[in-house]
Design brief:
By secondary structure, the protein is mainly alpha-helical. Helices cover about 50% and strands about 0% of the residues. The chain has one domain (about 1-115). Helix 1 runs parallel beside helix 3. The longest helix has 18 residues, at about 95-115. The N and C termini lie close together (about 10 Å).
Length: about 120
């Protein structure tokens, strides 16, 4: 989860890429529901292979080093990083800085809840 979150934040700031799974429905209705409606994201949502563990995502190495890297990346993401808003989300398409910030919180919250943290 730590490496997956780090990979995902790197997508937002343009330091990693992922294939698109976006379409008109994902860029409108799904994005609106996921980002703007106060509901918990469901479990078992498939991610892009480039950020999926065991497929194309960064493999875990040392827990403490991976954790420090994630925290540093979150710090860079939350500035907000000057590249946020310049890159499309692989599912939701173009997003504003505010939408990226909301996504960043919701994505981390989703995975932290998944592990009971």
């Amino acid at each position: 989860m730590i490496c997956h979150l780090n990979d995902s934040y790197l997508l937002a700031i343009g330091e990693r890429t992922a294939s698109s799974a976006s379409g008109p429905l994902q860029r409108t209705v799904v994005k609106y529901l996921a980002i703007h409606i106060p509901i918990r994201w469901p479990r078992d949502i498939h991610t892009r292979p480039e950020v999926e563990q065991g497929v194309g995502g960064t493999a875990p190495a040392d827990f403490e080093a991976d954790r420090r890297l994630l925290l540093a990346t979150i710090d860079r993401f939350c500035v907000p990083h000057p590249e946020i808003g310049k890159h499309d989300h692989p599912i939701f398409g173009p997003m504003s800085i505010a939408e990226w910030m909301r996504w960043g919180f919701l994505h981390a919250d989703h995975h932290l809840r998944q592990f009971g943290v």
